[in-house]
Amino acid sequence: DAGVIQSPRHEVTEMGQEVTLRCKLISGHNSLFWYRQTMMRGLELLIYFNNNVPIDDSGMPEDRFSAKMPNASFSTLKIQPSEPRDSAVYFCASRPLRGQGSGYTFGSGTRLTVV
Amino acid sequence: GNSVTQMEGPVTLSEEAFLTINCTYTATGYPSLFWYVQYPGEGLQLLLKATKADDKGSNKGFEATYRKETTSFHLEKGSVQVSDSAVYFCALAGSGGGADGLTFGKGTHLIIQP
Lengths: 115, 114
Fold this sequence. Notes:
- The complex is a heterodimer of chains A (115) and B (114).
- Chain A has no helices and eleven strands.
- Chain A has 115 residues and is an all-beta fold.
- With 114 residues, chain B is mostly beta strands.
- In chain B, 0% of the residues lie in helices and 50% in strands.
- In chain B, the strands form three sheets. In chain B, strands 2, 5, 6, 10, 11 and 12 form a six-stranded mixed β-sheet that branches.
- Chain B starts with a strand and ends with a strand.
- The A-B interface holds A 4, 31, 33, 42-43, 45, 48, 50, 55-56, 91, 93, 95, 97-109 and B 32, 34, 36, 41-46, 49, 51, 89, 93, 97-107.
């Protein structure tokens, strides 16, 4: 299995532009999590899905952020319009829905820089 | 709510030294506990886990024991190598088995000098 695949690895964009981050889950995993990592706040859970359904988006910082899971293997995180304070590394992670204590598998992340 | 506290870094050690990274947690019920490692420019990788009290997780020479009485899950290694240099995260999954997300500590940057 290729693992959790994120694209792009790096994104540099100007303030006000729309940014779309992509994530492909591991086959057979049906829970998907988006995290943001910054030096100041560490790892923050933004949103998660079970079986393509958004369960908790309370971590999404503002209405500028939205996430979708159009099918069982793919998810997008969109920021529109982007701002410099959105600069961070964004990770997605997947796991099987069942399984007490199952670890999460993380992608390599997308490093976003908004200038 | 759930929370994880781990020692601040960076932690700098010489090769072959003994390592301890402290981690304590606050949670209701019976959480599962994890240590993840992040190498530069990469995502987080699961290092070890323990799902119930007194369990010991181990991998690549690292160990951690789930201590419910002290709400701790300290990471140890007897002899570190330069290749162990990375950021280490302690994490907790709630009683729901982690279906609602992991709660992470802030991370401890470990630097091993030759």
